[in-house]
Amino acid sequence: MAQQRVLVTVPPLGTPGGVTHYYETLRAHLPEEIEYFQMGSRTQQDPPLQTIVRMVRDYCRFIATLLVGRYDIVHVNPSLLIKAVCRDAVFLLLGAVLAKRTLVFFRGWDPAFGERLFRNFRGLFAWAYFRADAMVVLASAYRETLQSIGYRKPVFVETTVVADAVFDGFQQTPGESADDSVNLLFLARIDRYKGVYGLLDAFARLRASFPSLVLNIAGDGPERENMLAYIDQRGIGNVRYLGYVTGKAKAQAFRMADIYLLLSDYEGMPNSLLEAMAFGLPVVSTPVGGVKDFFEDGRMGWLVERADPELVADRLAALLENPALRRSIGDYNRDYARRRFAASAVAQRLLQVYQQVSADA
Q1: Could you say which of 139, 210, 314, 361 is the most buried, measured as most Cβ atoms within 10 Å of its Cβ?
Q2: Do residues 289 and 270 touch, judged by C-beta distance below 8 A?
Q3: Is 1's pLDDT higher than 50?
Q4: Interatomic CA distance for residues 236 and 28, integer angstroms
């Protein structure tokens, strides 16, 4: 079957964010018939009037692009958040009118917002989004939710992505530090729902038994200053704040680490966890979003139900006391990530989704 022409809505390439990272990483593995339509702002602080003007321009450019390009499929990438759901509903409706088929990939999913949306505005959501010929989500639980509210077309469950270059010629030596320290890594948005305070309390519990233990925190967010003040007030030593890291600095943070932690209350499919596995790290994580669809508890690391300091400390201790177990888990995680999360593999699965959407016409 000939490759379908697909127009994918994406944020401005080069800006931070999971959606941008996903499509920038996939780009080299997709054929030229898959084109990106960049929309949205390059900043987060546009005034309301400027935002409205930009959105209108985006919609006009989108219509013109569809009319000229004669695409077979329009692929939109909302998050289940109020602004994104409203904005991308218009792109979806335009795509349904001007293209043959439409695909919705829910990149983020706020369960609390979703519950309110489907309880109070299910009909309006269905009127707009049930026009899609197929949907993609990052967790089987989200597929079940869509099906429970009446969506009867195909729903695919996918993952985020790790660049193939992470695997090419990489020799993992856990904890490439200049001393004998054991390094934990938290690399995520600095926010309360990410579980950073539970992690800090767990780390403080472990310091007496593991004096060489170091916690590296990478990222930025609304809780950064409060988090740093909390560390200072509690007198928690051996915490290194790396700030927001990307590129080589991000890769180095993973290479320095021995264990990766993700303790969020909710996620879609956290890309940093997949990257940690690709770098050969064992993981301690909460069973959020798509994590519980694939994570093998005890084989890839450990799952904890919440960012409870006692639970987290207990699971970390099991890994800290057994370097051989850390290495075994790390090797397994790296092999699994190569097979499942490498960009070349993810791109092939996405192309198969496009083919199925087209074949169902």
Answers
A1: 139
A2: yes
A3: no
A4: 44
Per the listing, tokens 């996620």 go with 267
In this structure, are 351 and 325 located in the same domain? Answer: no
The two tokens of residue 236 are 């928690």
* Shared-domain flag, residues 194 and 313: yes
Helices (H), 196-270: 196-206, 224-234, 247-256
Report the CATH number that the domain containing residue 188 is assigned in CATH: 3.40.50.2000
Instruction: Kindly provide the b/e burial profile for residues 331-340, where b requires at least 16 CB atoms within 10 angstroms of the residue's own CB.
Output: ebbbebbbee
Query: Is the CB of residue 301 less than 8 Å from the CB of residue 282?
Result: yes
d(CA 273, CA 291): 9
Residues of the domain holding 142: 6-161+342-359
Distance CA 103, CA 8 (A): 9
Distance CA 166, CA 150 (A): 40
pLDDT digits (tens, 9 = 90+) for 44-59: 667 888 888 999 999 9
* Secondary structure E strands in 160-206: 182-187
Integer-rounded Cα radius of gyration of the chain: 21
C-alpha to C-alpha distance for 227 and 265, rounded to whole angstroms: 17
